[in-house]
Design a protein that fits this description.
This protein has 111 residues and is mostly helical. Helices cover 71% and strands 0% of the residues. The protein is elongated, with a radius of gyration of 38 Å.
């Protein structure tokens, strides 16, 4: 049997939990960063509204330049604008169905 002594009593371990996923400094940094990002977006939106009236769409210029430099794309654009398409592209599905029907018909006759 153990005796109880008032001296040299062991104290229980203290609660020493350090959260792994929570860092208050990092959370504060993220909040400041998000706030700054939202301010920058707001400023960009304000300046883009002002510049939209003055600025021309750059993608349309690039697309036009690219098409003007390539012969095959220029011909394709001209065909699409004129509305002339090849017979196969207009009636491709119809031709495919007819070929399948003829194949089934001849297979049915031969057997």
């Amino acid at each position: 049997m153990g005796m109880f002594f008032f001296y040299n009593n062991r104290k229980p371990r203290s609660f020493n939990y350090k959260p792994i996923l929570y860092n208050p400094e990092e959370e504060e940094r993220k909040e400041r960063l998000n706030k700054r990002i939202s301010e920058i977006k707001r400023e960009l939106m304000e300046t883009s509204v002002k510049n939209d009236e003055e600025q021309i769409n750059p993608t349309s210029d690039i697309r036009g330049e690219f098409l003007s430099q390539t012969k095959h794309l220029k011909r394709r654009v001209e065909k699409e604008e004129s509305g002339s398409r090849s017979f196969l592209s207009n009636n491709g599905l119809l031709i495919l169905i007819l070929v399948i029907l003829f194949a089934v018909f001849f297979f049915w006759i031969l057997t």
